Amino acid sequence: MKKTSILLVFCFVLSLALTSCAQAKVKRYSVRVVKEYPHDVASFTQGLFFVDGSLYESTGMNGESTFRKVNLSDGKAERKFDFSRKYFVEGSVVLGNSLYILTWQNKVAFVYDFPSLKYRCTVSYPREGWGLTTDGTNLIASDGSSSLFFMDKDFKTVRNVTVKLNGRTMSNLNELEYVDGKVYANVYMTDLILIINPSSGNVEGTIDCTGLLSPSLRTADTDVLNGIAYDGKTKKLYFTGKYWPRLFEVSLVEK
Fold it and tell me: CA within 20 to 30 Å of 165's CA: 3, 8, 197, 205, which one?
């Protein structure tokens, strides 16, 4: 065998070995339900997050879009405001003293004072709005593609990363949550949540939520998994879905 051929074979074997190592680094989790809470079945959940121990939720659909402060124990809205029928609201998050709320295809975003929830302004938004979270410095958004967009408080894109799982591009990134230095992203229309390194875009873990909502609790209106909230004070993680009757406090179990 010629030296060139030997080198090519060596490179091929090395490539397979490196791929195998990369795959081994991706942790796989299932979920264990710690506690169940009521969730409003009229909520088409788009954004879900905690601030100072209080739960907030944005809900979508034209004519049904709302933003609300939710009582965790009974799932009812303690404060709530509605949006015009022309708006389909998506992800939401608080950064500093501002509440940011995206719309799906209206190409605008709303900014409110927080915690008063007093309307501040409507601004142009350059892409479809899907998920929204923050690392405490930047806003982090998804648009249904494989990209995560890091933006300043004026929605100017600072950078973006492509999300990949073992080198394979992952699209349909939807609801987002920033958890201990990682971005958690629900893959729309699936029971899969990705744990993403925000610097590289590489997926470092996957969470399989299959069976989280019991079939006995599902109706014809029950929609997909979509809703990730992390309470930094208690270090508790919560999942729900669109029109789901339950919000689940969960723990991750490595497979």
Answer: 8
How many separate helices (H) and strands (E) can be counted in the chain? Answer: 1, 22
**pLDDT tens-digit readout, 178-196:** 999 999 999 999 999 999 9
> Does residue 97 belong to any structural domain of this protein?
yes
CA dihedral 234, 218, 252, 148 (to 10 degrees): -80
Q: Residue 190: inside a domain, yes or no?
A: yes
Distance CA 54, CA 11 (A): 54
- Domain with 230 in it: 27-254
State both tokens at 154.
Answer: 């004026």
Residue 231 maps to a domain: yes
Cα dihedral 236, 248, 55, 237, rounded to 10, equals 20
Digit-coded pLDDT (tens) for 1-58: 444 444 443 443 344 344 444 444 899 999 999 999 999 999 999 999 999 999 999 9
